[in-house]
Structure formats: C-alpha cells, structure tokens
Amino acid sequence: MDHSLQKAAQRKAGIAARRALSAARSAADAALCRRIAALHCFQNARTLLAYAAFGGEADLSALLAEAVQQGKTVAYPICGAGFTLTAAVPGPDGWEVG
C-alpha cells in the first residue's frame, strides 16, 4: 500500500475510533476543558485561536464560551482562496450562515 493510501486508512480508522467513544466523550471533553482552563497560559491569554469541533474531534465549546465570558477574544481559522489561512472572530450573534 502506498503512503497516501496508508495515511488515508489511518485517518479513517482514527475518526471511526473517536466516534465509537461517544459514551465517554462528553466526560473526556469536560475533563480536557478543565485541564486547559487550569493552564497558566490560558488564564493569562487575551486572544485564543481555536477550532469548532467536527467529526468526533474534542469539543472545546464549553471552554471557549467561558473564555468569551471572561472577556477573551476567541478567533477561528478560516481557509480562503488558494489555501490562505486567516483568523476570524464571530460577531455577537454567532456566525453568518454560508
């Protein structure tokens, strides 16, 4: 099997394994959020670059909501034309559809 096929198979297996953990996932997500919130670098940060969980990724939404309540700016990476990467901050009403 060539490298790209092997990598794709590993990624697919990893995603399937994460999704299979749904019973324990919410507890693990909460524990991860608590652990990050306790970090000195998080407590002192004014701006965070984060991600919105997708496809079984760790859900940090509780942590990010707390960060916003603390007055921190939470930005998310946005891929643009030609695979350019910028950061965007949602407005007070969240993201615009589309």
Q: Can you walk through the features of this model?
A:
By secondary structure, this protein is an alpha+beta fold. Helix content is about 50%, strand content about 15%. The protein has 4 helices and 3 strands; from the N terminus they run αααβαββ. It has a 3-stranded mixed sheet. β2 (about 75-80) and β3 (about 85-90) form a beta hairpin. It is globular, with a radius of gyration of 16 Å.
Attribute tags:
98 residues; alpha+beta; 3-stranded mixed β-sheet; globular
Task: Please give the structural blueprint.
Elements: H1 3-20, H2 22-37, H3 40-44, E1 47-49, H4 61-69, E2 73-79, E3 85-88
Parallel strand pairs: 1-2
Antiparallel strand pairs: 2-3
Give a short overview.
The chain is of the alpha+beta class and 98 residues long. It has helices at 3-20, 22-37, 40-44, 61-69, and strands spanning 47-49, 73-79, 85-88.
Strand line-up across the major sheet: 1-2-3
Poorly predicted tracts of residues = none
Binned, the helix content reads 40-55%
Averaging pLDDT over every residue, what do you get? 88
**Beta strand %:** 5-15%
How many alpha or pi helices?
Answer: 4
Count the beta strands.
3
Elements, N to C (H/E): HHHEHEE
Q: Give the class from helix and strand content and strand pairing.
A: alpha+beta
Rg (CA only): 16 Å
